[in-house]
Amino acid sequence: MLPKPQRTADGLRLKNVAKALEKLSFVTVRRESNNPYIAFRAAYPVPCPITVDTDARKVIVPWVRNATGYKNTERLYKALKCGGWN
Known about the structure:
This protein is an alpha+beta fold. It has one domain. The protein has helices spanning 14-22, 56-68, 73-82, and strands at 27-30, 37-41, 44-50. It has a three-stranded antiparallel beta sheet, covered by helices on one side. Helix 1 crosses helix 3 and helix 2 crosses helix 3. The longest helix has 13 residues, at 56-68.
C-alpha cells in the first residue's frame, strides 16, 4: 500500500506547493531536516516553511505576495493546489 501524500493543514499536497513555488522567479525551495520543504527568495529575509501544519491561505499565499509582489491570490492558490501555473 502506498503512503498517503503529505498535505498542508488546508489539504494541498506539499509536493504540488513546492513545485508551484519553484516556478516563480528567484524563489528556491529546499528540503530541510526540520521541515519537509522551506521556500526562500533572494533579498527577502523571511523564509516560508511548508509543512503539514502550514495553512497555505494564511501562510504561503501572504508570503508569496510579500516576497514577490504577486497580487492575484486566487490564481496563486490554484497554482499551489495543482502544482503549476496555467
